[in-house]
Each structure stands twice: as C-alpha cells, then as structure tokens.
C-alpha cells in the first residue's frame, strides 16, 4: 500500500443499502463519502437499477455511488455502469478474480469483499485479486452480507498492501474502536444505522460519521505521541 494511504488524514465512510431519497440526502449531510445500492435481488435492501440511478442522481460531487453485486453477469455490470457512469463496483458474492476482471472489463475500479473467519488468509486473498482497488472486510454471514455481524478484527493482519474497508456490524458504538484497531482506509455500515432493512436513520448516520471523525482525531493524537 502506498505510504500516503497508511497516513490518510481521515477515514472514508461508506453507508450501504440505501433505498430512499431522504436517506441518501441524510447520508450526504452526515458526511458519507460513498453510498451503496444493493443491486442483488436476493437482499431485503435491493433496489432496481433504475431506482439506484434515480437515487444516485441526488449525489453531489465527491460523494460516490457504489453498486453492490452478488454473482452478477458482465452484461448486468455493463448495464449498471451505463446507467450510473461513476459507479464503483463492489463484488460481494463468489466472484473469482477472472470474473471480477471480466465484469469490470479489467479497467473499471472495483472493491472485492472478503468474508472474514478464523483461518482465512487475507494476504493470499488480496494478492489473488491484483486488480481490486480495495478489499472490503466483512463478517462471514449467511446470505453473503448485510448481516450486522462483527468479525474478529484481530484476524486482520498487518501488511495488507491494499486499501481495506472495514465492514460488518459497525455502529456508532463500536466504529471508533474499529478505526483505532484496524486503521482501515474506509469503513462501511448498513445495519448499524438502520431502523429497518433498507430504512436508514438520519441521527444514527450522523452519529456514525461523527464517531469516525472522533476516531481520526484520536488516531492523529496517537500518531503525534500525544
Ligand atoms: O446489505 C445487504 O443486504 C447485502 C446483501 C448481500 C450481500 C451484501 C450486502 N451488503 C454488503 C455491504 O457492503 C454491507 O454494508 C456490509 O455487508 C455490512 O453490512 P452490516 O453488517 O449490516 O453493516
């Protein structure tokens, strides 16, 4: 990982599984850097591509839409990238490196989710996806993701030479600890800021983003030896 990534001034924030205009607006207002739309029909947070494009058009500059896919086909990915041109791809299924590269036509930026469990070799996994712009570390849950479950953060080895996104069961209550212990490039949250599947709570999103900023302040103090 380039040195600048390990000394990033702030932890980026992705809020995932949005389905409503008011929630997109509240996520932006809270300080999200990216908002995720679940384009997999097997999720209770699923939105159609047309709906995701409609919601994504509300985003101001410098807030990125993320398309979440589970074992989608290249034509499905192409359609999504046509409908939402600046879409960051997130592959959260069983996609192989070749399938991820084919689906992103080898050039579109994508994140690859890793489902963390004891014995999982994250370094080997990351090396097997050389074109992944980031590795999203999620808990190993039934149904691929969005399970609201925290994995054992001690499973994250040092030396992952790729930006990592810490995910899985984060909330305003635990994200400071997660940022200080894992020091990820970004954090990702869904269940922890919801009042129902796909129904986000503006106050929880605000508190989550505020907690990440507090974590960054503490991290900076620690780095200065204060
Ligand atoms: O959010 C979903 O419903 C989902 C369904 C199937 C695969 C992935 C899914 N979400 C992926 C995400 O990026 C979630 O933000 C991530 O799994 C964390 O979710 P949570 O533990 O609820 O914060």
UniProtKB/TrEMBL annotation:
Pfam families: PRAI. Keywords: Amino-acid biosynthesis, Aromatic amino acid biosynthesis, Isomerase, Tryptophan biosynthesis. Gene3D superfamilies: Aldolase class I. Residues 13-210 form the N-(5'phosphoribosyl) anthranilate isomerase (PRAI) domain. GO terms for molecular function: phosphoribosylanthranilate isomerase activity. GO terms for biological process: L-tryptophan biosynthetic process. It catalyses: N-(5-phospho-beta-D-ribosyl)anthranilate = 1-(2-carboxyphenylamino)-1-deoxy-D-ribulose 5-phosphate. Its EC number is 5.3.1.24. SUPFAM superfamilies: Ribulose-phoshate binding barrel. InterPro entries: Aldolase_TIM, PRAI_dom, RibuloseP-bd_barrel, TrpF_fam. CDD domains: PRAI. NCBIfam families: PRK01222.1-4, PRK01222.1-6. Belongs to the TrpF family. This is N-(5'-phosphoribosyl)anthranilate isomerase. It comes from Sphaerotilus sulfidivorans.
């Amino acid at each position: 990982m380039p040195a600048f990534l390990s000394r990033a001034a702030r932890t980026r924030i992705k809020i995932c599984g949005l389905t409503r205009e008011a929630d997109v607006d509240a996520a932006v207002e809270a300080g999200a850097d990216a908002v995720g739309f679940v384009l997999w029909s097997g999720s209770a947070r699923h939105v159609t591509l047309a709906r995701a494009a409609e919601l994504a058009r509300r985003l101001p500059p410098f807030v990125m839409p993320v398309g979440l896919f589970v074992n989608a086909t290249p034509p499905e990915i192409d359609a999504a990238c046509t409908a939402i041109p600046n879409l960051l791809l997130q592959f959260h299924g069983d996609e192989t490196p070749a399938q991820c590269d084919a689906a992103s036509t080898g050039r579109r930026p994508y994140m690859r989710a890793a489902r963390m469990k004891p014995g999982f070799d994250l370094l080997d996994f990351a090396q097997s996806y050389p074109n992944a712009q980031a590795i999203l570390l999620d808990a190993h849950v039934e149904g691929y993701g969005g399970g609201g479950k925290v994995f054992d953060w001690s499973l994250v080895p040092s030396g992952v030479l790729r930006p990592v996104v810490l995910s899985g069961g984060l909330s305003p209550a635990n994200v400071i600890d997660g940022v200080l212990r894992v020091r990820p490039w970004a954090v990702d949250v869904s269940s922890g800021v919801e009042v129902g599947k796909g129904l986000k709570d503006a106050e929880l999103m605000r508190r989550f983003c505020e907690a990440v900023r507090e974590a960054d302040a503490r991290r900076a103090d620690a780095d200065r030896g204060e």
